[in-house]
């Protein structure tokens, strides 16, 4: 079942989307594989701290966050990966590690790797480890209103 906040956002925003159930997975790359979605089209959410503030970084599953590049893109901020214990409570309607890529729903900025913008469709976790949402990237961008950055490098 979609996270309630995500469901609300998609319905109120009248966004076209489909959902897909899949066997339980933990990593974004495994989820993309099980769902038969190219890793470049599956958006994974990575939690970071930029100068101590929690932020959401969204990038293709085939990529890894480049913290140095991200620091430069954020004006020299001190950037580090956030520990699960630091953000688990921010997502009360989601399973740990399965939060959808809409930071504003949870009071935090969202940064998207610009390579996702070149995709016609994007898929992402629906708030749990057994369901994904697939929608046009343009609709995701309209609803998420992310800041576009070049954040990652190939794994």
CATH architecture: Alpha-Beta Complex
- DSSP strand tally: 10
Mind telling me the CATH class? Alpha Beta
Report how far the terminal alpha carbons are from each other: 30 Å
- Order of SSEs: HEHEEEHEHEEEHEE
Structural class by helix and strand composition: alpha/beta
Q: Give the uncertain stretches in residue-range form.
A: none
**What helical percentage do the residues reach?**
10-25%
Mean pLDDT metric? 91
- Radius of gyration computed on alpha carbons: 14 Å
For the sheet with most strands, the description reads: 8 strands, mixed
Strand content: 25-35%
Domain module tally: 1
Topology (elements, then pairings):
Blueprint: H1 4-12, E1 18-21, H2 28-34, E2 42-50, E3 53-60, E4 63-65, H3 67-73, E5 79-81, H4 84-87, E6 110-113, E7 121-125, E8 131-136, H5 137-144, E9 147-149, E10 152-154
GO molecular function: hydrolase activity
Keywords: Hydrolase
Domain YbaK/aminoacyl-tRNA synthetase-associated: 24-143
